[in-house]
Structures
1.
Amino acid sequence: MIRGPLLNPPLLKGLAAAGHGARVLVADALYPHSTGAPPAASRVYLNLCEGMVPVLSVMETLAQTVFLEEVTYMANAEGGASESVLECRQRLADHRHGGGQQIAWSSLDRWAFYDACRGPEVCLVVATGECRPYSNFLLTIGVP
């Protein structure tokens, strides 16, 4: 199921353990990484310093590594998409999951997003160095 340029061993391990329907949280540097996901979820810390590693780089790499069925993002305070969400949607517009389908995009308000991220399907948390608020994504793994 894994394909692409990803080299990070803990991230590869976490993705290899994730099957169809599993969820991966890609979170900005402001997200509560230790309490905002199930205790059993693996955590990969890519937040070396501010801006490194940015959420867009992680999202693009993951889209080249596994099939993404759906991306749910945290809506901003006004209920819309943040700048980083718009960037990611644009960059991933041509990615397809199994059967050639486009990735489905949806949003949840902040509190509903936190609740979804604490669900048992979340098996991996990726902490990025992204400092722009509302740069949080919950990815659902698809099939080839």
Note: The longest strand covers residues 68-74.
2.
Amino acid sequence: MIKDDSSEHTTGVDTKMDILNATVELIREEGVGCATLRRIAEKADINLALVNYHFGSKEKLLSKAIGKLVATFDDAFAVLDDESQEPIERLKLFYYRYLSHLQQYPGLAKEIMDQSRLICCSQHEFARYSKVMKTEKMISTLREITHESDETVLSGMMVQLHGAVFYPVIMKSYMNAAGDEPAPEIHLPELKQQIEMLFSLYFHKYKQS
């Protein structure tokens, strides 16, 4: 009699997905720093040893989980490929969609800097991360807007824009997680208005006729 091991195989696959999904949820809700193996196992309702069995190490699991989180931003990155729109409008819409997603994940916003440290820990990982995050496409879009040819200048502009658009979201996340002390009340314009304000100031000399 041939043993039917399909149910055993399915259970293994399901357990692996449960672990991955639990890790994603922890990062979304509380950040990478809170995604300990013990908490992941508790959230997935599995034995701690199964985490290493299925993923080999915490680092590999976190890399997979962050990759899955990044994939949820695909609709934002897709805008950068829509050449039917003017490059400055593509970039505006990219940031709006990306930040709209990010606001749903307070833990991810709070840990955005640690996220880059985790997945850019080697030259190979940095290259992979840059490809996933469409860094080249963003620089290409900036080149279309500004007609700048110096790659160092373009990279600097991208970093400055990232800092300007991400800072309010990240700071809000930190203040909301500050603990017992009430966070100072800061009134900001709606997200679309913030991006319009930034682009109006930053790209005023590149306005297309």
Note: The longest helix spans residues 151-176.
